[in-house]
Amino acid sequence: MRENENAASEERVATGTVGLDHILRGGLSPNHLYLVEGTPGSGKTTIGLKFLLEGRAAGESGLYITLSETEQELVAGARSHGWSLDGLEIFELATEDDLTSANEQSLLHPSEVELGETVRGVIERVEASNPARVVVDSLSELRLLAQNPLRYRRQILALKHFFAKRKCTVLVLDDRTAEPNDLQLHSIAHGVISLEQSASDFGAERRRLRIVKMRGMQYSGGFHDFSIEKGGVSVYPRLIAAEHYRKFAKAPVTTGLAGLDALLGEGLAPGTNALLTGPAGVGKTTTAVRCMIAALERGENAAYFLFDERLATLMIRSKALDMDLQPFIDNGQLTIRQIDPAELSPGQFATEVQESVENQDASVVVIDSLNAYLHAMPSDNFLVLQMHELLSYLSQQGVVSLMVLGQHGVTGELRSDIDVSYLADTVMLLRFFEEGGTVRKSVAVIKTRTSDHERTIREFRISSDGIEIGEPIRGFSSVLSSSPSFDRRGENLLGQDRMDGGEGA
User: What is the rounded CA–CA span in Å between residue 338 and residue 315?
Assistant: First the structure.
């Protein structure tokens, strides 16, 4: 008997929205009434229709009771997602005839007549159809008819007990037209899913959901980003690094540059992240691409998330520097995703990174750059928390993460939008310096957590042959401050010929 009870307690009803089912650890407990609340346009109807369509696919009957939208509007909305509502029953509780002046009466208050008739209409249709899944859209109409909280609560309780006896799972939708602190529905419903949307000063609106309560169920708490796309609602569960771990080889891997490997001590260690920081044009992106190509040449996969520049520009420049990326894209080893931070939520970005690791087996992930990623976040604190969780996840997956951070300014004092260096396992500092009227570039590793790294500063240059790393610079001081001084001119520099005009980024 106990085994049967446990099996029943673990039974779940899938909502059809994959990310939401993941948050709910498989779906909803059957035969209960759930509240889905949100302002108009937040996605309640889409979730409700997908819930019924999922039931139809499982051979369960579904009933959509609408008190506000017409059947034509529901069918048109479903068609926009590529859905057909065939096999589902749609019941319009308020028809066109009910709204004519001929049906108006003045002897009794509308709440004394229409509310009772509305509730009876719902009960009669459910009894006639005997559905396994029901969606009621929306409770705001019942609230207006009730006129007072007590009457409204009694009617909702009556519906709840009625549905419980019918052995059906019910979603009731509410558009939050009640007072902000009115939590009557929260106390009555078995579970509450809250949808939120907010408009930003620039770019698309941001949507997120939260499970307010679920009686007797485990679920992932907190806010989860989501978007409404063709095909339904896409929910991006909040990334929890502690839930993801796999075994991986921990031997250091080469960057493809002997001089850079020497600076790092042993190269880049799997499960660590490296921050490449410096002014614009110094070569951060090119260095990251070179490290990534070394992994691709070993037969590994990689994912590149490009925020700042156009994909075509990256491809042209990389090919000109003898680092052609196209062959690796063609054979499926490399995936490059150009991202518009104004259109992509942080949760969606984290989900895409997770999919690149788990579905495409990427062993190297490049984020270029953190500056643009910052503008996708509502505040600096969110950036740090989100990035910390994402880097922890990549670390537990054995991924080498390369992050590019641009600094404001070119020479002299440089500054960043935010300091994330404490999150990085390795920090590479790239700088310009001048020698004999020539602009040169330097690279130094100022921090690694995995090996005893070299404390020197090396010159590097970018040409049509790629990247060249020189010997440690001995004749200069204050190179990292971008105001260097030197005693022995030209010593240990990369030749005295005219520097090649290769571009960095």
Answer: 12
> In 3D, which of 166, 100, 93 has the Cα closest to residue 133?
166
Strand partners, 208: 196, 225
Alpha-carbon radius of gyration of the chain = 30
Pairing of strands 33-37, 273-279: unpaired
CB 21 within 8 A of CB 54: no
All domains of the chain in start order, with CATH: 2-238 (3.40.50.300), 243-419 (3.40.50.300)
pLDDT 10s digits, 46-55? 999 999 999 9
Contact assessment for residue 161 and residue 7, using Cβ atoms and an 8 Å cutoff: no
To which residue do tokens 């009803």 refer? 13
Structure tokens at 501: 């005009």
**DSSP structural state of residue 403:** E
Measured distance CA(254)–CA(275) in Å, rounded: 16
The residues facing 90 across adjacent strands are 64
Using alpha carbons, select from 243, 250, 254, 354 the residue that is nearest to residue 295: 254
In tens, the pLDDT along 404-463 reads 998 876 665 566 667 778 889 999 999 888 777 788 899 999 999 988 889 889 999 998
Alpha-carbon distance of 473 to 458, in angstroms, equals: 6
Cα 345-220-194 angle, rounded to 5 deg: 65
Distance CA 497, CA 42 (A): 63
